[in-house]
């Protein structure tokens, strides 16, 4: 069974305009790490936003973890996203006035997970990501690579079925980007399904099991890569 299923998905921002995503069919199985590549404006972010339920398709259906999300209410889709989807971004999107621990705990608080359980999960994630010593620090004190580790911990705190990453190494130097890539690969090896939007062919080749290339909102190619070969 697919974890993600897009069927005939089209997204037009302006009626009558060029679709940003054009009749896409895409099935992602549990455990896959899919890199989405393509030129600027080819629809990568739109595709990610449709899968996250941040955007609604103009036509077609989007199913994630067995749930049709294109027909859910705003409230229901927000709840679904908090419980089932973790997201990381190029510029980390951490809250500067919260400590590392409080940033990571936030999605757990929003879903009402018991405090003791959330704290145990926090410890486990900070250890796995090797940022325990920054637990009580504020994000501004951390390096880019450390901030992205905090963002990854936050994305994983609710054990999401799906991790979505939008240019996760785009703001990092090469060596730090490779460390984040290795972390994502380890996560995928332990079973985490992920979609990774990237401009970086090296990242796709080394850390994804499959690469989907978009051109003008359509899937131009879909091939096995890196980790899979
Ligand atoms: P990519 O992530 O590959 O750069 P995007 O999904 O951001 O591509 O954009 C695909 C197309 O949709 C582009 O032509 C872009 O200008 C357009 N687009 C993206 N977001 C919006 C929006 N909020 N309103 C109008 N047009 C948009
Ligand atoms: P909003 O509803 O305004 O988008 P939320 O209250 O859902 O924001 O989330 C608060 C903060 O937690 C935001 O900074 C958001 O980026 C982050 N966040 C929420 N859900 C997730 C998630 N599943 N993965 C990673 N960060 C999340």
From TrEMBL:
Q: Which GO terms describe its cellular component?
A: membrane protein complex; plasma membrane
Give any Pfam family that matches: ABC_tran
Q: Which UniProt keywords apply?
A: ATP-binding, Nucleotide-binding, Transport
Where in this chain does the record put each ABC transporter domain?
Answer: 4-229
Secretion signal: which residues? none
A single GO molecular function term of this UniProt record: transmembrane transporter activity
Domain of life from the UniProt record:
Bacteria
According to UniProt, the name of this protein is ABC transporter ATP-binding protein
């Amino acid at each position: 069974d697919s974890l993600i299923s897009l069927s005939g998905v089209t997204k037009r921002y302006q009626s009558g305009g060029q679709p940003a995503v054009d009749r896409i069919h895409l099935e992602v199985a549990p455990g896959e790490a899919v890199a989405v590549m393509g030129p600027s404006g080819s629809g990568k972010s739109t595709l990610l936003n449709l899968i996250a339920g941040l955007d609604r398709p103009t036509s077609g259906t989007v199913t994630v973890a067995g749930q049709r999300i294109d027909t859910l209410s705003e409230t229901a889709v927000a709840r679904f996203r908090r419980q089932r989807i973790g997201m990381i971004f190029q510029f980390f999107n951490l809250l500067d006035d919260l400590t590392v621990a409080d940033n990571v705990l936030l999605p757990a608080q929003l879903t009402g997970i018991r405090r003791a359980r959330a704290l145990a999960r926090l410890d486990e994630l900070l250890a796995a990501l090797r940022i325990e010593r920054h637990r009580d620090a504020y994000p501004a004190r951390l390096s880019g690579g450390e901030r992205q580790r905090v963002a990854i911990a936050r994305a994983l705190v609710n054990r999401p079925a799906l991790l979505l990453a939008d240019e996760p190494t785009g703001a990092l130097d090469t060596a730090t980007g490779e460390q984040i890539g290795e972390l994502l690969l380890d996560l995928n090896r332990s079973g985490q399904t992920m979609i990774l939007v990237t401009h970086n062919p090296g990242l796709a080749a080394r850390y994804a099991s499959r690469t989907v290339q978009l051109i003008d909102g359509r899937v131009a190619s879909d091939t096995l890569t890196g980790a899979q070969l």
